[in-house]
Amino acid sequence: GSAGLRAFGHPLLGAAVTLAGTDGAVLTGRLSAAQQPWLADHVVGGSVLLPGTAFVELAVQAGDQVGCGRIEELTLSGPLVLPPDGSVRVQVAVGEADGSGRRSFTVHAAPGQP
Q1: E-state strands within the chain
Q2: Which CATH number fits the domain 6-111, given the four candidates 1.10.3570.10, 3.40.50.1000, 3.10.129.110, 3.40.50.720?
Q3: Given phi > 0 = left and psi -120 to 50 = alpha, else beta, which region is 67?
Q4: β-pair type (15-18, 6-7)
Q5: What sequence ranges are listed for the domain PKS/mFAS DH (predicted)?
Q6: Which three-class secondary structure state does DSSP give residue 72?
Q7: Cα–Cα distance for residue pair 25/66, rounded to 1 Å
Q8: Model confidence, pTM
Q9: What's the pLDDT tens digit per position in 35-52?
């Protein structure tokens, strides 16, 4: 709270912040097979990948934060690979509404702590 974040309480996302000067938001979380054991069930080619349905869930949660209740299109440019040990930090960003009310949505990931 003192850093401007508010607790989010979602199984994949733990905190959210509204972007100053805009109506966009960023939600953050940490993904790991140890913390979310069901993720370990999604193995492709020997690697644990975040399933597409989880990306949809991230988009829905981000949209709900800014009053956007519809996903028009979701394109995955590459897989989000989870390490066998440790975690991945994720940031889910939803941008400002354009003239037609549409918003951009991005997911960024970086290695987390072991």
Answers
A1: 6-7, 15-18, 25-31, 43-44, 47-49, 81-82, 88-94, 105-111
A2: 3.10.129.110
A3: left
A4: antiparallel
A5: 10-114
A6: coil
A7: 7
A8: 0.87
A9: 899 999 999 999 999 999
Listing from the earlier edge strand, what are the strands of the sheet with 81-82?
Answer: 43-44, 47-49, 81-82
Residue of 108, 89, 98 whose CA lies nearest to 66: 98
Using a 10 angstrom Cβ sphere, with 0-12 exposed, 13-18 middle and 19 or more buried, the burial of residue 92 is buried
CA angle 25, 62, 22 (to 5 degrees): 25
Hey, where are the domains in the chain?
Answer: 6-111
